Amino acid sequence: MKKLVVLGGGESGVGTALLGKEKGYSVFVSDKGTIKEKYKQVLIHNEIEWEDETHTVDKILEADLVMKSPGIPDKVVLVNKIRKKGIQVVSEIEFASMYTNATIVGITGSNGKTTTASLTHHILEQELEVGLAGNIGDSFAKQVLEENHPNYVLEISSFQLDDIMKFKPHIAVITNITPDHLDRYDYKFENYIKSKFRIAENQTKEDYLIYDADNEVIVNHLKRSPVQSTLLPFSIEKKIENGAYLDNDNIILTVDNKQFIMPTANLALEGKHNIKNAMAASTVAHLLKIRKQTIRESLENFQGVEHRLENVLKINKVQYINDSKATNVNATYYALESMDAPTVWIVGGVDKGNSYEELFPFVNEKVKAIICLGVDNEKLIKTFGNMVDIIVETQFMSEAVKIAYKIADSGDNVLLSPACASFDLFENYEDRGRQFKNAVRNL
Q1: Which residues of 415-433 are buried (b: 16+ CB within 10 A; e: fewer)?
Q2: In CATH terms, is domain 94-301 a member of 3.40.1190.10?
Q3: Where does the Mur ligase C-terminal domain lie (predicted)?
């Protein structure tokens, strides 16, 4: 009996364990942290062997195959030992894809992938049976086991792509590439770019790559390292013959000489970046033969993603906006760009080697006060201290919101858009966003 060891007992780990057991592996789940109670119960109920708060190295090294959680860096000693022994290490995406013949849409990028994946799924589910998985929702492996949809939309991070071998989406989307997570890539942007492009490395000319043609990083990489796939770019700056572009506030999409036109005024989501997300999602839907009318209606009624420029409440004519999912500078760039009123900006957290320069024009133009919410705010204070009249720091969300309430005048925005990871003060960006919303509701 082949042995599958799963490192990490979270959503993707437990999903992989269940699928592995069903496919005849003897499975062992090992987590250096604590496995959440709900996942422990699933493992116990399915008689899958597990351990937490430790790794029994000898037992792990008996594996024929290891699935490691995307949160575990390659540099970890244990992972090095596993690789030295010649044991294959795969991601959940790779493992699950071995057991499905579904049509897969894979979406990656530094920003916009959750919104694009959710929007794509929203359009497709009007006419197709389709699952949504990857970095979002229920585990892909678990869905392959329990629901076995004929189609999947997968939101895929670079960490998940680092451990693929044969994984190949029929349609791949790269929303954009900007510096992020460089701490995991030896601080070399080039390594991170290559990691994102792995989404297309096994594609053939029968497959499609949809990408942002305004993103120089992507365009230059394609020139240097061409892919096999059929290219369908999208742009809001230039005319595109095959793909999507913006013409007088209309999205014009051309695939195989068929055209689709959508006025951007009717899009439910606001902001330039969401025009691009809509272009990517429409291109996917078009390739999968969704009716034009369905695509239009879906783009008009899509509600957006929690923690992504989410309007929470209006109090005393001040709009409170939760953008906790902005865990890097480029995401915050889009948030500040879309502000149309003086803004009190709550920022901070774990800095991943950020450069804040691209935000300067917006901060000068739109930001009236900055509230730094992090354990170490020195860099933020040094960077923005001279640009705004008010800059304060706190380590409590409730306090940050109370300060914002005092500073904001009628007609202003209060924006939580941290540009950083959340792990210094919060469990994750969802926890940070929920605390913000609760604090606003308690004002």
Answers
A1: bbbbbbbbeebbeebebbb
A2: yes
A3: 307-420
Any known ligand binding at 111? Answer: yes
> Does 108 appear as a known binding residue?
no
Third-level CATH fold of 3-90? Rossmann fold (3.40.50)
Predicted local confidence at residue 181, as pLDDT: 66
Q: Read off φ and ψ for residue 441, nearest 5 degrees.
A: -65, -25
- State the fold for domain 310-441: Protein-Tyrosine Phosphatase; Chain A (3.90.190)
Chain centroid to Cα 388, Å, comes to 31
109 annotated among ligand-binding-site residues? yes
The structure tokens listed for 60 are 């792990």
Distance (Å, whole) CA 65 – CA 45:
23
Confirm whether residue 114 is marked as ligand binding: yes
Per-residue pLDDT reduced to its tens digit, 54-83: 999 999 999 999 999 988 888 899 999 999
Exposure class string for 253-277: b at 16+ Cβ within 10 A, else e: bbbeeeebebebeebebeeebbbbb
The answer for residues whose C-beta is within 8 angstroms of residue 104's C-beta and 6 or more apart is: 97, 151, 152, 154, 168, 169, 170, 171
Residue 222's DSSP bridge partners are none
pLDDT tens-digit series, residues 96-117: 999 999 999 999 998 888 999 9
Cα-Cα-Cα-Cα dihedral sign, residues 275, 281, 286, 292? negative
User: pTM of the entire structure?
Assistant: 0.84
> In the chain, which residues fall in CATH 3.40.1190.10?
94-301
Instruction: Give the other-Cβ count within 10 Å of 25's Cβ.
Output: 21
CA distance 244 to 278: 10
Return the H-helix or E-strand segment holding 97.
Answer: helix 92-97
User: Where are the strands (E) in 330-396, listed by range?
Assistant: 343-347, 367-373, 390-394
Is 115 marked within a binding site? yes
